[in-house]
Amino acid sequence: GENVEQHPSTLSVQEGDSAVIKCTYSDSASNYFPWYKQELGKRPQLIIDIRSNVGEKKDQRIAVTLNKTAKHFSLHITETQPEDSAVYFCAASMRRDDKIIFGKGTRLHILP
Amino acid sequence: DTAVSQTPKYLVTQMGNDKSIKCEQNLGHDTMYWYKQDSKKFLKIMFSYNNKELIINETVPNRFSPKSPDKAHLNLHINSLELGDSAVYFCASSQGLAGVYEQYFGPGTRLTVT
Which of A67, A72, A76, B71 has the lowest CB atom count within 10 Å? Predict the structure, then answer.
């Protein structure tokens, strides 16, 4: 089955700097890669997703890149703000499956 | 206008007891899920239902029994609770296949077994 590895487990960046979180997946049939943000005590919420027919996707300060050959994808947050502090999860799924496999999460701290 | 709701929000109980968690979605979605998030924040799927039919059962002990009375509701009953069952349980729903559509999570139920 699919396995998703996520790094780093913890990341601290100065406010205004960029943050990058990286994930790898094992099953080359995976074709959907969502990213979820979970604030303390709250539910996970989708922030951006990318499908395997696209190499990059942007939404304001957030971007995701996908390298299908290497089977890795990354989340980039630019101009980080205090409200970006949260746990971020990458995930991978195949169209034929009814489940997504989550990475173990990255706790992002934005330092003042 | 809550999209996915769960009750209760907190549940404290003793080992050996039986408890239930309820989930409802008003999004008109066909698919619902239960996830377990442990103390290390690892999110792991337990079950998924599509139009009241069980689709996924991820090697969860049979003490856990999901029930879907209709496609808007997915409840989770847990028998003979153990210390290791302590976690946050999230219900989620999506319009269809998880590999195609966004999943919407409920607020979670924090279960503490003492």
Answer: A67
